[in-house]
Amino acid sequence: VNLSTVPFSVDLQSRAGPFLDFEGVYIQDMDFCATLDGFAVVFSDGRVGFITTVSDQFTFEQLHGVWAQDVSDGTCVAVNNKYRLMAFGCANGCVHVYTIDSTTGVMQPSHKLELTAKHYPDVWNKTGAVKIIRWSPDCSVAMVTWECGGLSLWSVFGAHLICTLGEDFAYYSSGSKKDPIKVNSMSWGAEGYHLWVIADRGLTKNDIEQEMGEMMQQHDILQFQFIKSALTVNPCMSNQEQVLLQGEDRLYLNCGDTLQTATSSSSAAANSGHKPVREGSLLSNSTLDSQGLSTLLGHKHWHIVQVHSTYLESNWPIRFAAMDSLGQCVAVAGQFGFAHYSLISRRWKLFGNITQEQNMKVTGGLSWWKDCIILACFNLTEQQEELRVYVRTSNLDNAFAQVTKVQSETLLLNIFQDILILFRADCSICLYSIERKDDSTSPVANIQLLQEVSMSRYIPHSSLVVSVTLTSVRTETGISLKMPQQACDAAESIMLNLAGQLIMLQRDRSGPQIRDKESTPNPKKLLPFCAPVVLAQCVENVWTTCRANKQKRHLLEALWLSCGEAGMKVWLPLFPRDNRKPHSFLSKRIMLPFHINIYPLAVLFEDALVLGAVNETVLYDSLYMHSSTTDCLE
To answer: Residue 289: its pLDDT value, please?
Structure first.
């Protein structure tokens, strides 16, 4: 393609844009964005832009370019397909992140990834131009490196997580100055647990060459290890009040004194190989209610659970993880099958039949419902998408599972009380009821289809949906304030995170009820949903709860949002004072933004507390010794 024949303008509405003079100018870096159907490009003169086609088919004759007017010193680019973002590195050390306006086609600034003096005092003289940008495989974080060295990690919307500059220009214990990591190339490993780096370093050959000042250039292959929040790939609501981090072969959980006390009495028996203790009797719901979640969870103790080696042999690395509501059990899924672990008995439960494990691949995540594990999987033997329910207390075998076949691939799943919500690859949302009949001899729960909602009009690509949540959060038009208990128990709204845009679909109570399909097995009528409305932008995570508390109703009916560099937002209900009738012209909810100095990973709703984790890099003297192995940063 001759660049001189491609018209460029500030938006895609100006079809007949000018043909620019590209004599002596070439494309220095480019990356294809599948969800935007175009190329993000950096030219050799520092200009950056986006090239796409104005027709349905990608043809050379229909190419059109859009300029980013604020950038003239671009050096590199990387695109985020899940969030439809283009990150352009610049010569001044800053990363400008753009998106494309869906209406006009303008390259719209989203945010900046920029170091400040709080990361390193002399940052302006230490970084140089941005050299490489790499988004993680799950598109949740971006790693940046500069010409002068150093690594820095940001969340998708600009929350700063890690910076190595403080150690890159430090001194060893011997007094010699440490040379910074100068990265030539880097790439993320499977599931984003590893970052592989090819770096240059200066090493002296011997004392004679040291005196002569001669340096020998060598290349190192470094591997940085990471753990990540389970919400990045499996944003389910089974437990949103404990921090759960997952690595390639282990889990990190924050546990309070209550759980530690409960497990201490059983640790000796579990570790000595005696009979397992009675699960479920050590930590009940009444214990949680009487002592409070703050007592259980507000501690800085990490409990590390190593995934069973037998499961990892053929299923490494861990892809999904979920914790039950009591914080007693966790479930993980790797390449095939799944396994679950009891924090009380400290024992793993694996498939007894390895063939059953290898014939199932979890595709849409997994979640806990009471003592059951619900997962969306693909049956390799029958080539069929399925929903499966396994009971924790039974043997892990398909003979004890409840299997429901589904028509399309499930990408996400979540649970609200006794309702299962699915988002499928055909851009539809399905609601299922979960119930266990008292007269049934089988402990497995049954699931039945309740409602199906098509979202194809609003979602251009199914891969853009980050999370789907069913919640009782509503506006006042959704349900009358005269029935607060019914409001807390009802599934009033669907919250959909579409490429960082939080969309709300509320039950339509304004008109006559629309009858469900005749084929629906559940006779209960469900109201249809209204057209979606946008609640917030740049959303990374969403927290809500289905619990009810009359004394703290404003906290339990709140919606908590994590918004990257913008901090957090909480959508609070506004109740009239002294049970007075509210004015119709006043807003019934308010969105309050606030900044925090940690990255949020969990929310304690009754206490309005946010839990998170911070990262620190540590200088190892052996890191740059020629004869020693490279230590890992975790």
So the answer is: 42
| Percentages (nearest 5) of helix, strand, coil residues in the chain | 15, 40, 45
Tokens of 291: 């002592």
What pLDDT does 623 receive?
A: 46
**Strand ranges across the sheet with 446-454:** 410-416, 419-424, 428-435, 446-454
Q: Residue 63 CA to chain centroid, in angstroms?
A: 34
Task: State both tokens at 613.
Answer: 């984790």
Q: Mean pLDDT across the stretch 361-366?
A: 96
Q: Please give the structure tokens belonging to residue 448.
A: 């039945």
Q: By mean pLDDT, which of 241-250, 330-339, 522-531 is the weakest?
A: 522-531
Element (H, E) at 165: helix 165-168
Measured between alpha carbons, how far is residue 243 from residues 173, 209, 258, 283, 564 in Å? Answer: 36, 52, 16, 18, 18
Q: What does the alpha-carbon distance between residue 155 and residue 568 come to, in Å, rounded to a whole number?
A: 13
Q: In whole angstroms, give the CA distance from residue 413 to residue 364.
A: 6
**CB–CB of 498/542 below 8 Å?**
no
The rounded distance, in Å, linking the Cα atoms of 461 and 459 is 6
Q: Of 82, 81, 87, 105, give the one whose Cα is nearest residue 42.
A: 87
Spatial separation of the C-alpha atoms in residues 414 and 369, rounded to whole Å:
10
> In this structure, are strands 8-9 and 63-67 parallel, antiparallel, or unpaired?
parallel
> Could you tell me if 502 and 571 are in contact, meaning their C-beta atoms sit under 8 angstroms apart?
no
Q: Does pLDDT of 260 surpass 60?
A: no
